[in-house]
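Handout, section B. The chain below has 137 residues.
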Amino acid sequence: MSRIAEVLAALREERQNLLTEVSRIDRAIEALEDASGAVPASALPAKVTAPTLTGVPRRMPGPYSMMSLYEAAAEFLAAAGVPQTSRQIALGLRAGGFRTTSVKFTGTVRTMLRRKASSSPYGIREHSDGKRWYFKR
C-alpha cells in the first residue's frame, strides 16, 4: 500500500468517526430542544456566505435583515409552525439577521407584539396561555 493510499484510508476512517460523533450530537440537540421547547434548528435560517474578490467569504444578510419587526416575526412564526415565546422569537430574529440596537430585545419584541396582538395584519396572534405567539393566516 502506498503512502497516499494509507493517508486516504486514515482520513476516511477519521471522517466516518466524525460523522458518527456529529450524528450523536444532533440527536442530543434534538432531545434538548424537545425537552425545553426551544426553537428547532430547522426553523432557523441557514447562515449563508458569499464569495468575494479576496476569496474570504462574507456573510450574507439574513432573511430578516430588511424586514420590519412584525414582518420578520410573522415569517419566523410561520416557519416555526408552533407557538413561540417572545424570547424564542427574539433569538430567531437575531439569528436571521434582524438588526436592532435594543439592549433588551426580548422585551421590545414582547411589547411590540402586544401592541398589535388584536389587530395584527401580519397574522400574529397571542396564544391562550398569554406567554406564546403563533402565526395564523
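Note. The longest helix spans residues 3-36. Compare this with the example in section A.
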